[in-house]
């Protein structure tokens, strides 16, 4: 693989179900991020991780959790999905440092009914 | 609060020049990014400015004025493939990226 991969590409989910979105990068970047993108709104940060073993909350963390067991993987879990979590989810990674250029995965389109 | 403003939509003609503006108010400043995002795809990096002035990269240029909290992205010799959304993002004092809602650029033949 090259860059960042996300799975699944799209998913339709019943409200109340648990769902994990997967993200894997092979660039050995320390920092990883989860965003949601909704029509008319900018990218909003859900959670981030500056290095393996650490995570932090972003702008809209409620209803989501993450883990960072190793450098490459950064899964996002919706414990009990609600319709307002219908969105496109992007995972991104970057080197740590002042420039912080982020590289994005292809996204997961999630619909919660 | 933190705020980034950019026009929602712009229209331009193939072969012409267009300037997309971005104004920002953030807690601290550690650089400004422009990303391009085609419909249904992920954002991709275009430019980074941390010092005042103009950065040129082929048909695309980006300008920054830190004192005015202002940046613009200049696209020259527009091509149909430039039809996309252009996202402005500022790196704040905590080195978190704050994103604008994006400007949808429509190119007409």
Task: Give your account of this protein's structure.
The complex is a heterodimer of chains A (113) and B (109). Chain A has 113 residues and is mostly beta strands. Chain A is 0% helix and 45% strand. In chain A, the strands form 2 sheets. In chain A, strands 2, 4, 5, 6, 9, 10 and 11 form a 7-stranded mixed β-sheet that branches. The termini of chain A are far apart. The N and C termini of chain B lie far apart (40 Å). In chain B, the strands form 2 sheets. In chain B, strands 2, 4, 5, 9, 10 and 11 form a 6-stranded mixed β-sheet that branches. In chain B, strands 1-3-8-7-6 form a 5-stranded antiparallel β-sheet, with no helix packed on it. Chain B is globular. The model of chain B has no long low-confidence stretch (mean pLDDT 95). Chain B is mainly beta and 109 residues long. Chain B has no helices and 11 strands. Chain B has strands at 3-5, 9-13, 18-25, 32-37, 44-49, 53-57, 60-65, 70-75, 84-91, 97-99, 103-108. In chain B, strand 6 and strand 7 (60-65) form a beta hairpin. The A-B interface holds A 40-45, 48, 58, 90, 98-107 and B 4, 8, 30-31, 33, 41-45, 48, 50, 87, 89, 91, 95-97, 99-102.
Primary descriptors:
heterodimer, A: mainly beta, 7-stranded mixed beta sheet, 0% helix, globular, B: 109 residues, mainly beta, 5-stranded antiparallel beta sheet, 57% strand
């Amino acid at each position: 693989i090259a860059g960042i991969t996300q799975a699944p590409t799209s998913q339709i989910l019943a409200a109340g179900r648990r769902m994990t979105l997967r993200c894997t990068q092979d660039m050995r970047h320390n920092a990883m991020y989860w965003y949601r993108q909704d029509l008319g709104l900018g990218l909003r940060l859900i959670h981030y991780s500056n290095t393996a073993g650490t995570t932090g909350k972003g702008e809209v963390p409620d209803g989501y959790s993450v883990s960072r067991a190793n450098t490459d993987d950064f899964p996002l879990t919706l414990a009990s999905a609600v319709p307002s979590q219908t969105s496109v989810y992007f995972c991104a990674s970057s080197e740590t440092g002042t420039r912080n250029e982020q590289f994005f995965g292809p996204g997961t389109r999630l619909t919660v009914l | 609060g933190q705020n980034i403003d950019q026009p929602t939509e712009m229209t331009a003609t193939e072969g012409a020049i267009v300037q997309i503006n971005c104004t920002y108010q953030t807690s601290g400043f550690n650089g400004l990014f422009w990303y391009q995002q085609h419909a249904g795809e992920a954002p991709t990096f275009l430019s980074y400015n941390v010092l005042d002035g103009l950065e040129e990269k082929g048909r695309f240029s980006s300008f920054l004025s830190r004192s005015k909290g202002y940046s613009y992205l200049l696209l020259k010799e527009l091509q149909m493939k430039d039809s996309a959304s252009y996202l402005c993002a500022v790196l704040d004092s905590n080195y978190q990226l704050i994103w604008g809602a994006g400007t949808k650029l429509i190119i007409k033949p």
